[in-house]
Protein 1
Amino acid sequence: MAHENEKIWFDGKLLPAKDAQVSVLTHALHYGTAVFEGIRAYQCPDGSSAVFRLNDHVKRLLNSAKILGFSIPHSHEELCKAIVDTLKANKLAEGYIRPLSFVGAGNLGVWPGKNPINTIIAVWSWGAYLGPEALERGIRVRTSSFTRSNVNGMMSKAKAAGNYVNSVLAKNEAVQDGYDEAIMLDTNGFVSEATGENFFIVRNGLIKTTPLTSVLDGITRDSILKIAADMGYTVVEQLFTRDEVYIADEAFFSGTAAEVTPIREVDNRTIGEGKAGPVAKALQAAFFKAAKGQDPRYAKWLTHYSF
Ligand SMILES: *Cc1c(COP(=O)(O)O)cnc(C)c1O
C-alpha cells in the first residue's frame, strides 16, 4: 500500500501522501458517493513498463461518475497523463493504480448539491491479489449468502464505492468460513460475479461468462473474451446456474487485481481435477503475454512509459 512519502496526485498536484488529506465531513465518506478504478502496470521483458488498457479504464471512470450523476472536472486526456505522471513520480515500474473521484465536503444531506468533486490517484506495488499460490494452484470459493444487488438498485455498470458494501459482506463471510473468495448470485438466482472479479466456467469445451446484466463490465473480462476468441475457443455470454458451476470442467475469475485466477473448488465440490485447468492456464498465459507487450496483436492495449 502507499506509504507516507509516496506521491499522490490530488486534484492536479502531486503531493506527499501525508499531505493528501480530506475533511471527515466528505460526502463520500458518509454515503459512498465515490467512483474508482483499479489498473495495473506491468514491466515488459524489454525493460519498458506499460499500463494495461489505460484509455478503457479512464473512460469507465468517467462513465461511472456519469451513472452516479456527477461529473469529474478533468478531461480524459488529463487523467491519462496524471496516471502516467504518478507512476513516474513514484518510480513504479510495475504495480497497481487506484484513481478515485468522490463527492467532497460541503452539504452533508443526501443531496450532494454543489459539493466539489475531488480526485486522487495513488499507486503501489501489488503482487497476486489472492495470494502467490492462487495463480498456479487455483483457489477455493463459496457461493455467498448475500445476493448481488438488483440491477435497478445499485448500478452495476458503475465501479462505485457504495456498491462495495455488498462485496465486503460477501468477502468477509467467505474469508471467515475459510474460503478465498465468494461468488454471488443475482436476484433471480443465476450466477453473477465475485466481490471484485468476473466469473467464467468451461464446460464441454465451451467458455461461458455472465452477460452484462448484474455484473461490472470488466476490462479483464473483455480482454479474455477477445483473447479466447483469437485462440479459437467458443465463448458465450449467457446466464448459468449454480449447479452448472458444480459440474463445470473448469472455473476461473478475471479482474485487474485477480488477473486470471483459476478456481479448484466451489462449495466443497471439486471442479474438474481440482487444480488449475488447461483452458484457464492457457488464457492466463496469453493474458500475461498481452499485458507484458509480448503479443503484437494486443499492442494497442498498452501505454508504455519509462522514468
Ligand atoms: C473491478 C471489478 C471487476 C473486474 O473488472 P476489471 O476491469 O477486469 O478490473 C469485476 N467485478 C466488480 C464488481 C468490480 O468492481
Protein 2
Amino acid sequence: MIDKQLTEIDKEIKSYQKNENIILVAVSKFQSIEKIQEAYNAGHRHFGENYVQELAEKYEQLPKDIQWHCIGALQTNKVKYIAPFVYLIHTLDRKSLCDEIQKQGKKHNRVINCLIQVAISPEESKIGGCTFEEFENLYEYTLQQPNIKVLGLMGMASFTQNEDIIRGEFRSLADLYRKHPEFSILSMGMSSDYIIALQEGSNMIRIGTKIFGERI
Ligand SMILES: *Cc1c(COP(=O)(O)O)cnc(C)c1O
C-alpha cells in the first residue's frame, strides 16, 4: 500500500523532472514507526516531521541513514534537540531562530541546512513564514552565520479549492526563488496541491496523507 503510493508519486514526479532532481519528502507526523519502516523498506529515505519531540523520538528508533526534515513551526528553545542530526530545516523565518540555529550548529560542529519559509498565503502568515518584504533582510542575516547554509525557500499555499489562488501563491515563491540562482531547493506542494506546485517549478514536495493515509 505505502510502496504503491510512493511508486505512483515517483512516477508523477518523473514527468516534471527536467535536469534537476525532484525530492519527495514523506511527511510522517502522527504516523507509526511501522508505517515509516514500511516506506523505508521500500527504499525511501527523506522523511518530514512537524513536532520536535516526535522527530527526536523517531530519529532514535529508526535507521540512522534516514534524512530528517523539520517542516513545522520551530520554537527557538527546541532547536537543540534536532541540531545534532537534522538534514534540513524548512521553517527558518526570523532572526532569533537564526541565532539559535547558528549557536547549536557551532556547538555540534556542523553547518545546518535551512530553507527560508516565506508566507505566501494568509493562513501561513498566522503560523509562520516571513513576509516577502522581510525576506532579503533575513537572508542577508543568514549569510553572516557560518553554521547555517540557506539552500532555498519553502511555502504553503492557501487551503482552498480555487486552483488560481494556489497557483498564484506558488508562482510568487517561484519568482523569488529564480531571483537567487545560488538556491537549489524550492519546497512547495502537499497532498492536495503538489501537481500545481510541480507545474510551477517546485523541486521538493512534502506529502503525508497521500502516502500514509489519514493521520490518527
Ligand atoms: C502536514 C504537512 C504536510 C503534509 O500534508 P498532507 O496534506 O498530509 O500531504 C506538508 N507540509 C507541511 C508544512 C505540513 O505541516
Protein 3
Amino acid sequence: MSIANELPFQTPVYLDNSSTTRCDPRVVEEMLPYFSDTYGNAHSRSHAYGWGAEKAVDLARERVASLVNCKPSEIIFTSGGTESCNLAIFGAARMYAEKGKHIVTTAVEHRSCMDPCRALEREGFEVTYLPVDTNGLVTAEQVAGAIREDTILVSVIFGNNEVGTIMPAKEIGAVCKDKGVIFHLDACLGLDTETLDVDADGIDLLSMSGHKMYGPQGIGALYVRRRRPRVRLRALNLGGGQERGFRHGTLNVPGIVGMGKAAEICKETRDAEKVRQTALSKRLKDAFFAQMDHLYLNGHPTQRLPGLLNISFNYIEGESLMMGMSTLAVSSGSACTSATLEPSHVMRALGVGEDLVHTSIRFSLGRFTTEAEVDFAAKECLAAAHKLREMSPLYEMVKEGIDLNTIEWKHD
Ligand SMILES: *Cc1c(COP(=O)(O)O)cnc(C)c1O
C-alpha cells in the first residue's frame, strides 16, 4: 500500500490553479442537463429546445455581467481567455486603425495578448511595451506618459500568471478615460478573489476565462462597453451573426451555463476566498523561508494574487526539484515557456537573474486547497530541496563563504 492512500487528501496535491482550476461540482451539476436534455441551439426560435437553451444563456450572461458590474448585453461569449484577448486586441486595433495605429501594453503580458500585439506590429501598428519594476508593476504614470495622439488601445494584464503581481487597473483605467483611449484588461486570473467593476475601474474591454475561475475549459467571455464610449470591434471570424456580430458561431450552451454558475460562485465567495488563500499561501511561504536559506519570492510582496507563490530556490535546478516532489502538482516558475527552457519574458522583465529563473517554482493555491495540503506540500518540497542542496557544489561553496561572483569559471 502506498503512503499516499493514508493521507486525508488526493495526491499529487494540486497546486497549479494558475494553469487551470478544478471545475466546481456545483458548476458541473448545473451544466449536465444542457448536454442531452435541453440540447437545443440557443438561436432556434421555433421550438422549446431552443427556447430552453436561450433562457439558460440569458441567465448565464446576467451572472457573468454581475461579476464585473456590466449589462448582460455587454458580455460576448468566446472559446476561452485566449480568444477573448485576441478579439479585444485585434478587434479594437483593426476597427480603429483609421484613428491611429499605436498600442500601449506591458512587457509581462500573457502570450494571448503579447502575440497579437507582435502580429499587429507586422500589420503596421506600433506597440509600446512598458517595462515593469522588479516587483512586476507598471504605474499609471508610465501609461499616461506613453499615450500619444495616435494611441487607440491600452492593454494590460491584471493578475500575472507567472509571478502573481496585480496591476493597478483602476489607476490605469482613470488615465485611459482621461485621455479617451480604449482600455483592455486581461482579467483571466484574479476574478475568484478580486473585485473588478468596469465602471468604477474605467475598463472598456475585459477578458475572462472559464477554466481559471472553477468553470469548464474551452469557454470564455469578453466584456465590451456599450455606453460612454460605445466600443466596436472587428470580428475575428465570419458566420451566423451570433453575439451581436462580434463572435460568430453556435453558442457552447453547456460551457456558457457553466461559466455563468462559476461567475455566480466567484461573486459570492471572492472576499472570503481572498482572506483564506492569503492565509494559506502565507503559511506555505513562512514554512519555506523558516526552514531554508537563499530563497526569493518573485513578484510583488503584497499586491499579488493571494494564492500564487513564485519562489526561486537558489542553487537548485527547478526541473530537478519538480521531479523530486512527485507528490505535488506544480509548475516551473516560468510555466509558459518551460517547454523551451527559455527564460520567460516575464521573469526577464522583472530583472530576475537567469540563474534564479531556472530555480523557480510556481505554487498556485485555489478554492479547494486545504491547510493539510499546504503543510504536506511544505514538507515534501523542503525535503526534496534540502536533498538537492546537499548535492549542489555551488551551495557547498557558498556555505564555505566563497563569493561565487569572484570565481572565474573555466570553459572547455
Ligand atoms: C490562462 C490565461 C489566459 C488564456 O486563457 P485560456 O482560457 O486558457 O485560453 C490569458 N491570460 C491570462 C493571464 C491567463 O492566465
Protein 4
Amino acid sequence: MIYRKNKLTIDHLDISKIARKYKTPVYCYSLRKIKENIQNIKTHFKNINPLICYAVKANPNLGILREIKKNNLGADVVSVGELMKALKAGISPKKIVFSGVGKTFEEIEYAINKNILLINAESKSEILQIEKIAKKKKKIVDVGIRLNPNTDAKTLSQISTGKKENKFGVNQKIFLQLVNIVKKSQSLNLKCLSVHIGSQILSYKPYQKMLNVVNKIIKLSNYNFEYIDLGGGMGIDYNHDQSKLDFYKYSKEIKKFLKNNHCKIIFEPGRSIVGNSAILITKVIYIKEGFKKDFVILDAAMNDLMRPALYGAKHMIIPLSKINRKSKKSYEFVGPICESTDTFSIVKNYQKLNEKDFLAICDVGAYGVSLASNYNIRPKPPEILIKNSKIQVLNKRQKISDLI
Ligand SMILES: *Cc1c(COP(=O)(O)O)cnc(C)c1O
C-alpha cells in the first residue's frame, strides 16, 4: 500500500477506483501482503521448523483461507463452524488444532470424526468429556492440555489470556493432575502442551517468561510431549512506528527452550498473518463542527470494525488522496451509530477534509470483518482481494432486504 502521485494504491491499483466501483464501506485485502507475512514467519523461524496453524478467528473468509492453505499452513479453530470452514478450504485435518474453553459434545464429536491433529483441552471436565466420546466411538484421540502459565502478556487487558485470573487453560496443579489422568486413559493419547498468553504482544519478554514456565512444568510432569503449542499473539505495527514483535528475539528464546526439550513447535498466529493485509475504505458523510475539534462522520462504523469500541484499539486513518495544503485540522473520526463508543480516533494536524472524501482505515485484516455485526440493521461490507493486480470479490455486500 503506497501513495503514487498522492493517490493511495495497492499493487499499482488506484484504491479510489475500487471505492467508486464497490461503494463504501468496503474491506480490501492484499494477497501480496498475506504471502509476505507468511514468508516472514517461515524465514525467521526456519531453524525451529514449526507447524504453523493459522488462527481462523482472525479472519475466516473462505477465499483467504484457501490462499493460506496454498501456503501450506494448518489451522487453529475455536468452533465447529471454523473447523468446517478450514476443512472446506482444503486444509488437512492432520494440520488442524481445536482450542477453546467451551467445546460442546457435538463439537468434540465432529472433531473426533474428522481425525484432526489435536484437541487442546482446557479443563478436567473437558478431558473427561473427550474421553467419554472417544470410548463410545472406540477411538484413541490425540489431545493437548492448555496450561495457564500466569504470565502477563503486557498487552491490552481485554486481549490478555495467560494470567491466573483469565478463564483460559488450567493452572500448574491441575495440569499435572490431568497429565496423570490422560496417561492412564485407554482412549486418550497425550501429545501436546499448549499455551496462548494473549494477542498483540510487542515484546519477546512475555514469551520468554512463558517458555520458562513451560520448561519448568514439563520437568515436573516428567512427560515427553510430542508437541508444544505456543499459541499466537505476535504483535503488529498498528502505529506504523516499527513497534512490532521482534521475531528474531522470540526465535532465539525458542531455540534455547528446544535444547532441553525435543518436541515439535506449533504456532497459532492470526493477526500477524492477516492484520496488516487489509484496509477498510470509507467515505466522509458529513463534517460537523465540535467544541475543540471537528467530527468527521464516516460511513464505516463500529459494526464494521469493532476493535476500537471493544478494546480501545487504534487504527491509522489515511486519506486516499493526499493533499499537501498548509491548513491542518483536528478531527475526531466517528461512525454514524448511536453509541458514544462508535468512534475511531482523534487526530491533530490532519489534512483538511471535505465531505465525500475517501479514507482508508488501516490494518483491519484481523478481527475486522470477523467481529462485524448487523447492529443498527447495517449490512456487512463487501470484501475484495487484490491478487496479482486483479480484483477478486470474496464476499458481496449483504443486502438490507435480507436483514428485514
Ligand atoms: C485468538 C487465538 C490465537 C490467535 O491470536 P493472534 O493474536 O491473532 O495471533 C491463537 N491461539 C488461540 C488459542 C487463540 O485463542
